[in-house]
Amino acid sequence: MLSILAWLAVILLAAAALVAAYFVWRTQTIARRAERLVPARGKFVEIDGNRIHYVEEGEGPPILFIHGLGGTLHHMRHPLFGGKIPGYRLIALDRPGAGWSTRAPGASARLPEQAALIAKFIDRLGLEKPLVVGHSLGGMITLTLALNHPDKISGIVLIAALTRHREGVPREFAPIYIRSPLKRWLLANTVAIPAALKMAPATLAYVFGPQETPKDYMTEGGGELGLRPGHFINTVMDLVAIADDMPALSKRFSEIDMPAGMIFGTADKVLNYTENGEEFRGLIKGLDFETVEGIGHHPQYWAADRVAAMIGRVAQRAFAA
Question: What are the structural domains, with CATH classification, of the chain?
């Protein structure tokens, strides 16, 4: 009897190993495909062990773009570059661990640490007090930069920005709120990426809704790059850091004293525009605040002219000052 149970245990372990090996192979296949479809397009700079990928175009006063949770620099480059904001030097970076940027071993995703790294990026590129434009979580990192390094920048523009601290984790993000580094690593290298590929249409419908997902989003919008283990791990790290840092930072917004703008879609499914926009607008003196009726979480895609116009207005104020 004991030998039969032992053989069953061996068979079950072997089957589990085969299943795990399949998912590891599947994950690596998806990741290699993603990197072929969306290769690095820009330059790299190393800062404190972080290898940062960035793209730029144009000449003039600098405007720096910071993307949101799970995104890449293409979330900003794709809809807003290409001559839509003339007369400025536009720079968009992949945040550490996103896109083609890598996060230094042992580095955290804490918001003050990300803001400090961007301040060093500004110094490394010799950008003279850029206007900083942040989308979603990138908006919260932009606010952190304005709070902790106000001497490095001239102004800020927030696109559908996270500003409101909420207790608990929204149910849409609960499956990837993983505090254990070991669990993150195991999931990232086995089932997370195949599952993300399967769920991609529903996920993108939520993120872009009520508008359609741009037809070229997976390539020109950089969406494929999210289908890699490292990107998954760093997205989870970013999500965990929000809960750790938002309570203290959100109490300090009224300290910000520089030209600022905010634009929100009223149909945003990811971040409630009333909580994160309307209730925020009185905290920064002189904030240029605008809503776009019926637009979701990516107004830079579906109201690009309105977003570019706001960036232009705030840039005039910022660089004049």
Answer: 36-320 (3.40.50.1820)
| Cα–Cα dist 141/65, whole Å | 11
Cβ-defined contacts of 308-311 (< 8 Å, 24+): 308/80, 308/84, 308/85, 310/157, 310/261, 310/263, 311/63, 311/80, 311/85, 311/131, 311/133, 311/157, 311/261
pTM, to two decimals = 0.93
In angstroms, the CA 142 to CA 99 distance is: 19
Q: How many CB atoms lie within 10 A of CB 312?
A: 18
Residues 265, 297: Cα–Cα separation, whole Å: 6
**Length reported for the chain:** 321
Interatomic CA distance for residues 264 and 288, integer angstroms = 12
Task: Answer for the pair 258, 150: CB distance below 8 angstroms, yes or no.
Answer: yes
**pLDDT tens per residue across span 207-257:** 999 999 999 999 999 999 999 999 999 999 999 998 889 999 999 999 999
